[in-house]
Task: structure prediction
Amino acid sequence: MNFLAHAYLSFHNPDVLVGNMISDFVKGNRPQDYAPGIQAGIRLHREIDTFTDSHPATLAAKQVFRSEYRLYSGAFMDVVYDYFLANDTREFPPGSLEIFARDTYQTLDNYFEQLPEAFRQLFYYMKQQNWLFNYREPQGIYKSFAGLVRRAKYLNNSQPAEKIFAANVKRLEENYRLFWTDLKPFAQEQFKKLIN
Result:
């Protein structure tokens, strides 16, 4: 999953939110440098990623991107899942996504000194460009596709991903719904275990 899903699946716990958002920027034994709640968030993020990567709906959805992007197909799906989550009115009724995004940025600002330097740099752009809110628009995820390509060693063009997404949006939404139905209760159960 991408940033919106990880933030949402922190279940309004500030420490867990921070850990969930910074997990990819914390390597090796470094989680021990953080408070227990943040460590729980880091572990929750990793549990969510493992579940996501092995879920049948994700494996099927990645095939849409595989011929063009091979090993990066999962990264594109992470972004696509955030688009569908941002537009899922069962999770974000009208008006609530904007509030959720603002609250998430405020929480991360409150922990700014504890954020890894690389995440701080990314967070500046996330907040300035309001990524969490703008995932609801195709142009928002197309910008994320472009950022993914910029950071990847062996990719140089995100336009095929835009075309693939547009051509397969209904199929990908079905995969999201199948996946999310399983992911949310899994994440809730992991959350309860990790904070107790």
